[in-house]
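Z., the sequence and structure:
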Amino acid sequence: MFWWKHKRALVIGASGFCGTHLCEALHQKGAHVIAFDRAEPNWKLRVPFERGDILDFSALRLLLERHPVDVVFHLAAQPIVSTSIILPLETMQTNVVGTFNVCEAIRLSSTRPPLVFASSGAFYGATNATEAIGEDDPAQEAANIYAPTKAAADLAVRSYAKTYGLPFAVCRWMNTYGEGDLNWSRVVPATFRRANVGLPGLIAATDGTNVLELLHVRDMVEAYLRVAENIERPKVKGEAFNFGGGEPLVLKDVVERITRAWNEATGQDVPETPEILGGRVQSAKYLDIAKAKRVLGWEPKIDLDEGLRHAAQWYQAEMGPLK
């Protein structure tokens, strides 16, 4: 905690699910935080907020000169896969051009602060992996436009680090969940939404035997902080790190556990067995987090069932009836 006291941090993409949690964690640790986003936050931030767009390069340049900071966290993105298919060019502009703008604004700034970039496990595309995916596994084609935009941005950040000697690093995630996530296409909020009206979970695209993982947002925030604290080290600067739950999970079991957590938190009795509409898809997408453990001393702390129960309480208490 003392490392962050009076540090100055800029969080780009502060209004989103993960950005708000990161701002709150930094604030609690005594950092001076500037939140930057083009949209108002979903709930009140306790830090100064500036409205702006990462596609406005001049605004980014001015922001960094007006607010000299010790570290920049870049979380801004168009993160919804289905939207990327409908709006591919807009997704590319935000995720790729926007990231180049952030990198270049930092490079040209008077202070050149370190950058921690929120990449994604989507970097690896439609992998045929049968075991945990490591950082050196290559990017693959995907059946959406979101994945290649994150891969391009990921490569750009690391290339800026190597080309210009800048202290930039990349964080890759898979299936983050927790209080405040309003992306209803994700498995946890989607299942809670159905449970709130008495319906079991729904698995539409597969038969539920595919393998994935879940990571609580507070574990994600701790990973961001750990990267920032170590970013000047040679083993961190210019590197990519995987962060995940550390446990491969079968989708059908995950949906059952989400519904069970809802029932335990709310006293309801929603059927736990999900409705399954899809066919078999041979897929195992979970990340090898050995590098993060070895280099950063990071590992997930929040038990999945405990995290789901807390999330269920938030959705019931804060959101009211979900429709």
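The radius of gyration is 19 Å. The longest strand covers residues 32-37.

Let me know what you think.
H.
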